[in-house]
Design brief:
Strand content: 5-15%
Number of helices: 4
Number of strands: 2
Largest sheet: 2 strands, antiparallel
Strand order of the largest sheet: 1-2
Helix content: 55-70%
Radius of gyration: 20 Å
Length: 80
């Protein structure tokens, strides 16, 4: 996963959190939730880490497959 893709995932995540927690009233005006507040809401959860762990889990799943299975054949062919 490239750095650009990582930042795109994080940007989308922040946009979704802002949509869920619509504009907040600050005194007489309205404002959006800042990135620091979004980090507090997410409590350290990160979509990029989740995607990496799921990919690693999938690779382990394919690695345990029999050699006749299609995903195993594709993975073996791309590794060579």
């Amino acid at each position: 996963m490239t750095t650009e893709e990582k930042e795109t995932f994080r940007l989308i995540e922040r946009k979704n959190v802002r949509k869920i927690n619509r504009p907040v009233q600050e005194g007489e005006g309205w404002g959006i939730i800042m990135n620091k507040e979004i980090k507090d809401i997410l409590q350290g959860e990160d979509n990029v880490k989740l995607i990496k762990s799921l990919r690693l889990g999938w690779y382990g799943h394919v690695g345990r497959m029999q050699n006749q299975r299609m995903p195993q054949q594709i993975t073996s062919a791309t590794m060579q």
